[in-house]
Structure formats: structure tokens, C-alpha cells
Specification:
single chain; alpha+beta; Jelly Rolls; five-stranded antiparallel β-sheet; three-stranded antiparallel β-sheet; 3 helices; 8 strands; 22% helix; 33% strand
């Protein structure tokens, strides 16, 4: 049997833990219906602005037809995503989606977002995103043509 050390109790703002919090919204207006955009540089700028060296970074799409995910920045992979998602949830005909009864033509975009995910959480170590090889953060747009937000929240010391 393995003995575990007791968990140290702490509270926000105590001397033991002096956590800081940083919040910023990134705005995107993608003219195309769909796109994958590497937002790693903008997220790294947010991390530098936060001054946080150790902690966690949350990055999430604040719209129900957009996504944030982590993967490789390779154009063939992006095309594979596009083809795969279109097979899973084809845009046309829009009448295949009950969501179309609302007057919207973006039922497929809601499903694509669900598959690709809403957010990512990345460890912050030494003031940098603690990525594995080739990992980058992407904004996935599935129903472009209007402004949408991505939230970056960093918590740590």
C-alpha cells in the first residue's frame, strides 16, 4: 500500500498561495464560412502580459459555432479536418438539420464545434506554454462572416 501525504489546505490570497488572475478577449472576424487559425502567438502575448510564470491558461471560444483546439500547424492536417468534418456534418442541404426551422443555416457548424471542442487548458511553466512537440492553439471557425470572441484566462503565480 502506498501512503499519501496529507493535502495542505490553502485559501485564495493567503501568504502561501498568492495567485494572480488575468483575462483578455481576442476578437476574430473570419470572412470565409470555415477556417482554422493558429492563435498561438496571440495567446503567448496574453501570457507575457499576465506576468504569470507558473499556473494554468484557459483558452475558449465564446461562440457556439467556433472552437479552440490544440494540434499541429500543418496544412494537410487542416485539409483532413475540413474533409472529415464535412463528411460528419455536411453543410448542404441545410434542410437536413432541424435547427434550420429557426431560420438559421448553420446546423452543421454547431455539430462541428461540438466535435472539435470548446476550450483548451495548457500548463504554464517558467512563463511559457508547456507544450509537447508541434502543439499549437487553433481557433476553428465553422460559421464565419461576423465577429466572435475567444477568452484567454490565466491563473497562477
Amino acid at each position: 500500500m502506498v501512503a499519501l501525504a496529507p493535502v495542505e489546505k490553502w485559501k485564495w490570497g493567503s501568504r502561501r498561495w498568492n495567485l494572480k488572475s488575468y483575462r483578455k478577449e481576442l476578437w476574430f472576424n473570419v470572412p470565409a464560412r470555415r477556417a482554422f487559425i493558429n492563435i498561438t502567438p496571440q495567446v503567448e502575448t496574453c501570457l507575457r502580459e499576465s506576468g504569470i510564470k507558473e499556473g494554468l491558461l484557459l483558452c475558449n471560444a465564446m461562440h457556439i459555432t467556433a472552437s479552440v483546439f490544440i494540434n499541429d500547424d500543418e496544412s494537410g492536417l487542416h485539409e483532413d479536418y475540413e474533409r472529415w468534418l464535412e463528411r460528419l456534418a455536411p453543410h448542404d442541404p441545410v434542410s437536413q438539420y432541424l435547427h434550420s426551422r429557426t431560420g438559421e443555416d448553420n446546423g452543421d457548424a454547431h455539430l462541428k464545434r461540438q466535435v472539435m471542442g470548446r476550450e483548451v487548458v495548457v500548463a504554464v511553466t517558467g512563463g511559457k506554454l508547456d507544450f509537447g512537440p508541434w502543439e499549437r492553439i487553433f481557433y476553428g471557425e465553422f460559421d464565419g462572416g461576423r465577429r466572435k470572441r475567444v477568452l484567454v484566462k490565466v491563473i497562477g503565480e
